[in-house]
Amino acid sequence: MGEVIAITSGKGGVGKTTLAANIGAGLASNGKKTVLIDTDLGLRNLDILTGQENLIVYNLVDVIKGSCPFNQALLKHEQYDAFYLLPAAQMKDKSAITAEQLKKLAVELKEQFDYIILDCPPGIEQGFQNAVAAADRAFIIATPTVASVRAADRVRGLIEKNGLRNCDLILNRVRMDLIKRGDMMSIEDVTELLPIPLLGVLPEDEHVLVSENKKSLVLEVDCPTAKACRNICKRIEGEEVPFLDLGTGRHLFSKFSGIFRK
To answer: CA-to-CA distance for 70 and 58, rounded, in angstroms?
Structure first.
């Protein structure tokens, strides 16, 4: 049986969708059959990040409503044999899918896939609630800003209220120069405020923007973000991998080396 992972954020602009795409591709490159589902009805983006926007015939709503079987709507990535995308509907209202319908689909997909990744819309509205209801595990994406951390803590509370206790934090767009100057929250500051395991830390990286503009995955580039994404995938699989040294030295990151779940 596969595992359903909801990738969430309390607010937009934290890199959630980019990380969802690259984590999915990373798991697939490790031989895990992975399907990435865009649950942001009306505002789909994953098809652009994976370079598949011109290949869409059917979408998530078509599958939910029984217009086609899910395997007919899946888009297989040309570079990763085990990586599939189920795109969102571009012209549907966010209420077109219920939590029960998404849960039912997730159960079916777990029979054929090792990982089902649900890319949630930002915020805590219907799309978020649907994904959390269907998930076995949740990743909260945040940046080291007061607003993002506060929103992430709100999301954490709602996830736990929903009965989902398996929740991890991924801290994105970290700039060590700002942390050293005292102009950005440190990794330690964030983890003290958000009492959930730290799964990954990623730097601010211009390669992300370049890859998105080229409609490709940053995982294909030799850069810090790609390395951090691959390490996250290894941790998801239970491997204990050191966090990347982003300029603070080994001591700070060694403190986090054992707090992610196996």
So the answer is: 9
